[in-house]
Fold this sequence. Notes:
Layout: E1 6-7, H1 13-23, H2 28-33, H3 37-58, E2 60-63, E3 69-74, H4 83-91, H5 94-98, H6 100-121, E4 127-134, H7 143-157, E5 162-166, H8 170-176, E6 181-188, E7 193-200
Helix pairs in contact: 1-3, 3-4
Amino acid sequence: MLMETIKLDPRQAKKASEVLSASFFNYPMFTFYFPDSQRRIRYLPWYFQNILNCALGYGDVYTTPEISGVIFTLPPGHTKISMWEYIQNGFLLTPLLLGFRNYKRSMDCEGFVGYTQEKLMKNRPHFYLWGLGVEPGWKVKGIGAALMLPVLAKADAQKLPVYLETHDEKNVRYYQKHDFSLIHTARIPKYDLPIWCMLREPT
């Protein structure tokens, strides 16, 4: 049976942010940004709610009726969020909440990730699969694959590729099963944090 996917109601953004926080709790980027687990528990939902504010404002966010997983994307021409847009969507207090040292590290990493996307895509229009997370208790049920369907269908209809990067090597094989190809690997300067960059061509 085909799993139902729907666009996220902005009123459910808080619940969706909690699902993403649980899904990404041990994700390398976030253990790096929030090395203290208690601070991660406290601030990851806030972080993801602000990210979803951005995605709801400028892109697409899909979920399931019970909000067991969430995917958020950005469209061609707006695959990068500006500092002002981040601030408008709730990130003003980030330096205080992360602490200056962790904030500086996060900005260095985000800058490198954005630069890498621009370098690889060379102004080629594309969709950006910004993030995909599934509630831990619901994994291995096909939710991630179902959530990707409307995203990939939209990209195919416009004959455009979909780009993503991951900081967790285990995700590479997962996305390869969905026709993404590994196009680049790198390590973020100063911090030695690896990223794997992937692209799915339209079908």
